[in-house]
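Long-time lurker, first post. I've been practising inverse folding by hand and with some scripts of my own, and I keep getting stuck on stretches where the structure tokens seem ambiguous. Below is the full token string for one chain I'm working on. Before anyone asks, I'm not after the true native sequence, just a reasonable design that respects the backbone. If someone could post their per-position residues I'd love to compare against what I wrote down in my notebook.
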């Protein structure tokens, strides 16, 4: 009797950058297990005709569905929109949440499925994230409250850029980490549902921390695979929609929400963060004014 192949649900969130989404869809069709992949494109109510352009790919490929949210829901709610569609209609064994500005090797999903069952209590796994020039990126541990306070200073962020420490701490060509980046998350679908999908009260930043916190609370582990990688061409969508100041405000809002929900004495710590965030935004404005004066 032939063994049933695992079904993989893929959620790709789109806002305006439909060309990137189309490139990724074409990339996924080249996967060695493409016949078992179901691609859900969620358009976050793009104002540039993205939905109409992407809908053509529903007609081109039988494994593609294109949904529109009706409003810009942000990262968490937008992805949850696609995840709930998968839950109701596809019932996949595994799920991948992908940014649309990534490039995958053709055997990526096959390798992920093979590796998942060999790891201890896995929740989220991902290949190594690399920039177009080959540099590796790992988010690693959950930041402490005091680390978040320090990170509010632009000077601290500039002076404390460190290369990621990459180590096989499992003896299985995988690195156990706390936080997996939101550009690529792969999980058993039932397990990701058990984690609660994405915490919905954020818009664009800090979503990975909520997932990492849920993983830790439920006794699972996250892993980066050291022998596999993907390319992430950062921030095309983000930079087209938010200027620097508004991006920091969204990041600050995410930190406040995380502190309130996931940290002991959350209200007290959130109050202190709000004061320091006001000073941080003033610092950002001042730096940009100085830069503008010299340009």
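-- Answer (accepted) --
I ran through it position by position. Result:
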């Amino acid at each position: 009797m032939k063994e049933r192949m695992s079904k993989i649900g893929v959620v790709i969130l789109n806002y305006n950058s439909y060309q990137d989404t189309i490139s990724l869809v074409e990339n996924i069709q080249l996967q060695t297990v493409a016949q078992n992949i179901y691609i859900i494109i969620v358009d976050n109510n793009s104002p540039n005709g993205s939905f109409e352009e992407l809908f053509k790919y529903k007609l081109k490929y039988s494994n593609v569905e294109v949904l529109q949210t009706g409003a810009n829901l942000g990262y968490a709610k937008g992805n949850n929109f696609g995840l709930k569609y998968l839950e109701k209609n596809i019932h996949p064994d595994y799920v991948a949440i992908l940014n649309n500005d990534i490039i995958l090797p053709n055997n990526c999903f096959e390798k992920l499925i093979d590796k998942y069952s060999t790891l201890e209590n896995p929740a989220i796994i991902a290949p190594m994230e690399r920039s177009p020039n080959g540099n590796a990126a790992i988010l690693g541990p959950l930041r402490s409250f005091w680390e978040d306070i320090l990170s509010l200073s632009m000077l601290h962020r500039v002076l404390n850029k460190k290369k990621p420490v990459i180590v096989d701490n499992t003896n299985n060509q995988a690195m156990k980490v706390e936080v997996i980046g939101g550009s690529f998350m792969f999980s058993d679908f039932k397990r990701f549902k058990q984690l609660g999908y994405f915490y919905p009260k954020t818009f664009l930043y800090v979503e990975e921390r909520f997932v990492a916190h849920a993983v830790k609370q439920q006794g699972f582990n996250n892993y980066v695979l050291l022998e596999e990688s993907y390319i992430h061409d950062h921030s095309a969508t983000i930079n087209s929609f938010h200027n620097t100041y508004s991006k920091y405000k969204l990041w600050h809002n995410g930190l406040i929400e995380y502190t309130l929900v996931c940290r002991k004495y959350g209200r007290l710590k959130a109050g202190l963060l709000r004061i320091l965030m006001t000073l941080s935004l003033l610092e950002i404005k001042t730096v940009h004014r100085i830069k503008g004066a010299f340009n």
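A couple of notes from the structure itself: The chain has one domain: 8-142+163-234. The domain at 8-142+163-234 is CATH 3.90.550.10 (Spore Coat Polysaccharide Biosynthesis Protein SpsA; Chain A). Happy to go over any region you disagree with.
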